[in-house]
Amino acid sequence: MSVEAKRLRPPLLAALFLSALLLATLFAFARKPTPSQPTAAQQFKNIQVLKKLPASQLIPVMREISASLGVRCDFCHVRGAFQKDTKPTKRIARQMIQMVQFLNAKEKILHGRATCYMCHHGNAMPITKAPMRPGA
Ligand code: HEC
Ligand code: HEC
Question: Does ligand 2 lie within 6 Å of residue 67's CB atom?
Answer without folding.
Answer: no
